[in-house]
Design brief:
Blueprint lengths: L6 E7 L3 H15 L9 H9 L3 E7 L8 H14 L3 E6 L7 H11 L3 E4 L1 H4 L9 H10 L3 E3 L11 H10 L5 E3 L20 E4 L9 H11 L4 E2 L9 H9 L5 H16 L4
Parallel strand pairs: 1-2, 2-3, 3-4, 4-5, 5-6, 6-7, 7-8
Helix pairs in contact: 4-6
Length: 267
């Protein structure tokens, strides 16, 4: 089915071996969703190979400032070992040298930063996080934000919209169609060209008609295909995406061309 498709995955998580089992279990407990795979780079590549995935954006989240440097070193090391991986660093608003770490990870070849306000317990538009946005905008590093949860307000779409307006040179990627379980609010991004989106952890729940409506409103050239691995298997996420029945041009934009444009990579 996917042999003629060019596929990239713009949202995948990997973890160091010592904590992988615990991390995957904690994520599953947090969302009340059983994980499909272990969270190792090898498991990711095996799952993605089933549909011919060519590139993966990989990340992991520091829930404490003390974890930042070691996680970033782990991500960079994995990217060195596996040419298919593009790494996103982690940061934390309470980390003591945000500009220094942004400069360091950019020098290591990491391509952006991932933030998960719900795990890290800060509001996206909290001024305490502004040094991260300043430094990433200056370095040209996109930030992939977890957005949306009906249990918390930390990552609400309206909060990311505040940041996108305040930092117009910052490229923001709003995960989960712009707001997990807050899809009624994502039209707030309509006039914000520096906000992109991914498809991860959405199509299992969002009705097809509403997904197509949001793709039309927000624009398919701003969407990236993502799996949220290890939460979901690549085959099942691709099947959900293809079930939308998008025209070939929009389908291929989301599966690979937007990824190529944003990250300037060859496939």
């Amino acid at each position: 089915m996917s042999s003629d498709l060019i596929i990239t995955d713009a949202h995948a998580h990997i973890f160091p071996p010592k904590i992988a089992q615990k991390a995957v279990g904690s994520i599953g407990d947090f969302y009340h969703i059983p994980m499909s795979h272990p969270g190792s780079p090898e498991a990711l590549l095996q799952s993605g190979a089933a549909i011919g995935t060519r590139k993966y954006l990989v990340c992991s989240t520091a829930t404490r400032p003390a974890q930042v440097v070691s996680i970033n070193d782990f991500i960079q090391n994995c990217c060195q070992q596996h040419k298919e991986l593009l790494g996103f660093a982690t940061l934390h608003p309470a980390f003591e040298d945000i500009p220094g770490e942004v400069s360091r990870v950019a020098g290591l070849g990491l391509r952006g930063v991932k933030l998960h306000p719900d795990f890290q317990q800060f509001c996206i538009d909290d001024p305490a996080a502004f040094p991260i946005y300043d430094a990433c905008a200056a370095a040209g590093l996109p930030i992939l934000f977890h957005t949306g949860d009906d249990r918390y307000d930390w990552s609400a779409p309206a909060r990311l919209a505040v940041v996108a307006r305040r930092f117009p040179k910052l490229t923001c990627i709003a995960a989960h169609f712009g707001g997990y379980n807050h899809w009624q609010d994502v039209e707030v991004y309509r006039s914000l060209p520096n906000v992109w989106f991914d498809t991860s952890s959405t199509l299992f729940k969002l009705p097809r008609d509403r997904a197509l409506e949001l793709l039309d409103i927000l624009g398919t050239r701003r969407f990236l295909f993502g799996t949220d691995f290890p939460m979901w298997d690549h085959r099942e996420e691709l099947d959900r995406f293809l079930a939308l029945g998008l025209p070939e041009e929009a389908r291929d934009d989301i599966l690979h061309r937007n990824f190529q444009r944003l990250f300037e990579v060859a496939l």
